[in-house]
Amino acid sequence: MNILIVGGGMGGTILANNLARRLAPELRAGKAHLMMLSASDKHMYQPGLLYLALGRMTPDELYRDQASLLEPEIEFYVDPVEEFQLDQNRVKTKSGKTYGYDILVIATGSRPVPEMIPGLAENAETFYTEQSALKMFKRLQTFQGGRVVIAVGVPHKCPMAPLEITFMLHDYFKDRGIRDKVQLHYTYPIGRVHSLENVAKWATPEFDRLGITYETLFNMKEVDGKNRVVKSEEGTEARYDLLITIPAHKGMEIVEKNKLGAGGFIPTDKVKLTMEGRPNVYVIGDTTNIPISKAGSTAHYQAETLGENIAAIVKLGAPVRDHDGKVFCFIECGKDRATYAMFNYTTPPDPKAPTKAVHWFKMAYNKLYWASARGLL
Q: How many domains does the chain divide into?
């Protein structure tokens, strides 16, 4: 049985390693074949970009060679897919090669699209790429005071990022001795400060305590860079001296080009993790249209479910478990305090008061990520 994984991010990498271990006998005997196609030979620790933007990590700490993270039984090629020929159970790559499969897993991720809002890309700082995070770091270093607006678009990668950057900026400016010269103003598209109700209930009094103002039902329409104003679809305006954005995201362009799903997000069965209408095609991580958090832990737990199920298909002829939608997200609440949100399809999160212990656990995870990607955690 040929298993093909397209995408070498967290979801694809954990799944490939999981399958390599579960199917070791079958792979050795030639009864199963496991391959990964990626667009890059590097693997980035994406949560580290937040710390890079604040000068707390360096670019070299974000990367490992993708091949070094994979079990030796996995055939790995840097050869981006250009065509998904699903009716023929094959893909065509940039090199012109075609790869057939019995089971396909699409784990191509998502990308920020600030250009969807006129003026946003040109006038706002963000931290979703290495280049933009470094640019934001340099901008923050020279900022001496004024009104900082954190403007949020949806959907976006890492559901807690808007809250984290806001809390971390509070401590950043406090450490520089200029917090009294900075007004932090946060905007969010729906009628509360976070999409998860219990997280919003926890965060709102934290904002109040720290003197952070906020405006909800603020959907970005355009940015007037000349006058330093963000305008909303609702008709309101937010004036800024420094604009920081968590831009809306789309799935990867290859998904859109192949018309696999609106906005680059593939319609996916939330329990089976199969692409709608394609029982031998699975989708995990940011690529799905499942209405849960686009986070590393989402991809991690999906990969574990799928690893067990694909191995069972090979060994038993059928999958053995349903996916429950589990997500675990750290929430950095400044430079040395953090909490977390854990939830699934049926149980909402219930964040506790931030502690130093949870922050240091998050710091440890920044180092342990590479073991996690190898499927060892």
A: 2
